[in-house]
Amino acid sequence: MYPTLPFGPASLPTAPILAILAVLVTLEIASRYGRKLGLHPDDVWNTALIGLAAGLIVARVWNVFQFWHIYRVEPSLIFSLRPSGFEFWPGVIAAFIGGYAYLLYRALDPVRIGASLAVGMLGGAAVQAVSGHLTGGILGLVSTAPWAQPYFGEFRHPAGLYLALGLALLAVAIWLRGPSQHPDRVFLLAVLGYSLMRLFVDGFRDGMDLIGSMRAAQVIALIVALACAALLARRPKDAGERS
């Protein structure tokens, strides 16, 4: 695959470069969609960046404390920002708390912010899926299909490209046809669409944990999709119905 990308005489690592691009795509789409929801783009950017900063700091500090016996021997490693040097779930929780604290400080509507970020994250996830295809992070099943891609002497489904294309089309569809007057439904549609994409594409992925005959990620995606569909089935009441 392509662990590095050529930029003139230099070569840069694919995963970090596309991760940065994914963040920028997420924020740009989210800020632009936020305008449709009546939000100022700066509020969307600031909420996301504060949450991201809080998440990265906590994820890194958590890793340092967890493996302090190693960092104590080689303290210079503390400043080595490797992907494996961040703890995922502590970072996610800290990002949520940091972003939500900014929402409270600015008295912003969390539903509209969440809807705009959800649409933006579809675009960012599409970029990350391309990264997974290029680096082998998303490995497809061996295939004889004419569009199968070579990977170390074998031809496999380009599952990363399947996911990237599906998420990009989903983001465009919600942008054009999403019920922007109901940001809660926009959020649910984005999560539902992402879950359905994972439910479909993960069937073409290799090396995933199984629960019975299904991949664990597919089971989770199915549960989330059913929950979102149930919530979307509860149609919002009009003003006349509320009275």
Give a quick precis of the structure.
With 243 residues, the protein is mainly alpha-helical. Helices cover 65% and strands 7% of the residues.
List the helices and strands and how they pair.
Layout: E1 4-7, E2 10-13, H1 14-36, H2 41-66, H3 68-71, H4 88-106, H5 110-135, E3 149-151, E4 154-156, H6 159-177, H7 183-201, E5 210-211, E6 214-215, H8 216-233, H9 239-242
Antiparallel strand pairs: 1-2, 3-4, 5-6
Structure report:
- It is a single chain.
- With 243 residues, this protein is mostly helical.
- The chain has a domain at 110-142 and 154-233.
- It is 65% helix and 7% strand.
- It is built from nine helices and six strands.
- The chain has helices at 14-36, 41-66, 68-71, 88-106, 110-135, 159-177, 183-201, 216-233, 239-242, and strands at residues 4-7, 10-13, 149-151, 154-156, 210-211, 214-215.
- The strands form three sheets. Strands 1-2 form a two-stranded antiparallel sheet.
Instruction: State the distance separating the first and last CA atoms.
Output: 60 Å
Could you give the order of the helices and strands?
EEHHHHHEEHHEEHH
- Please report the number of helical segments: 9
Number of strands: 6
